[in-house]
Amino acid sequence: LWPVHQANKGLMLETVRQVLTRTFHARGDSPVVLSAMLAGLDDKALYLGFARRFAPYKRAHLMFTDPERLRRILSHPDHPVRVLVSGKAHPRDKLGQDILKSIVQIARSPEFIGRVLFVEDYDIAVARALVQGVDVWVNTPTRMEEASGTSGMKAAANGVLNLSIADGWWPEAADGGNGWTIGGSQVYGSHELQNQADATALYRLLEEELVPSFFARDGHGVPAAWVQMMSHCLATVPTLFNTDRMVSDYLDKAYRPLAAHYFAQQGQKKAPAREAAKEFLRIKAGFEKVRIVAATTVELAEFKVGQHLDVHLEVD
């Protein structure tokens, strides 16, 4: 498994080199900057991949919340870490474009050049190379806003481990042995506080778990514990998250029940639908007449935040 992954990583790095070289030459960009970026493509490094649409809720900028702490993680002399970022923002998504622009600027800064690399012209070929070749797929959406997370599923199907917020598909997939979950269940009302908490949890996982595990090698130079997680990932994720299941779920949970409901309605000349609509209108028309006559609760003087509160209503 490890030799196969290393071969995929080699193909990925070659793709990244070609894309960087082509795009720099196409716009007449600095050969000095290009040379510094290419020099950072260390095949011994731990590679973190973040490639997807640059919608603001996906928080591509989260990893860069504390630049100094991230710089220390990426620049360790014996345990090098690299971040590969790719993707596009919608033409009308100004905030997404600004996030993308800020990461491009970070990738060109003296502190991060060659350690954070933005791969332009994101397409199927680039996506294929990244989901096969990186060591870790990073997913950092705002909680309860990720619909699914198919890029992480594709990465997992290649033995790539996921490092993800517990949102979208990951709460169903994560079992503690096939990847890592960023942060706990605490949700803050402030976006700024949530970003700080999640970024801190992300850095801690990198420093205390991912980097040490990846660079803990046996006598053959293989990270045995890491490869065991890759093997467990392949055994647990693709078997559950695949197109066969998707199609069968749509068929069994949506199309067949809806078809049966349609034919039942047709058989009764849509009478049940008309009765349901009539009842809905009756409730809607009468709801404004409902009155709360009285409300009582316990004495609030000693009440503390988080305690259970009983409220009794008299409703007419």
What does this molecule look like?
- This protein has helices at 2-26, 31-39, 67-74, 94-107, 124-133, 150-156, 170-173, 191-214, 224-236, 243-267, 271-287; strands spanning 46-51, 81-86, 116-119, 136-139, 161-165, 179-182, 292-297, 311-315.
- The chain is of the alpha/beta class.
- A 6-stranded parallel sheet has the order 3-2-1-4-5-6, with helices on both faces.
Q: Judging from the principal axes of the Cα atoms, what is the shape?
A: globular
- Oligomerization state: single chain
Instruction: Tell me the number of helical segments per DSSP (H or I, 4 or more residues long).
Output: 11
List the uncertain runs: none
| Amount of beta strand | 5-15%
How would you spell out the order of helices and strands? HHEHEHEHEHEHEHHHHEE
According to DSSP, the number of beta strands is 8
Distance between the termini: 69 Å
Strand order of the largest sheet: 3-2-1-4-5-6
Mean pLDDT: 95
In short:
With 316 residues, the protein is of the alpha/beta class.
What key phrases describe this protein's structure?
alpha/beta; two-stranded antiparallel sheet; globular; six-stranded parallel beta sheet; 316 residues
What's the structural blueprint in terms of helices and strands?
Layout: H1 2-26, H2 31-39, E1 46-51, H3 67-74, E2 81-86, H4 94-107, E3 116-119, H5 124-133, E4 136-139, H6 150-156, E5 161-165, H7 170-173, E6 179-182, H8 191-214, H9 224-236, H10 243-267, H11 271-287, E7 292-297, E8 311-315
Parallel strand pairs: 1-2, 1-4, 2-3, 4-5, 5-6
Antiparallel strand pairs: 7-8
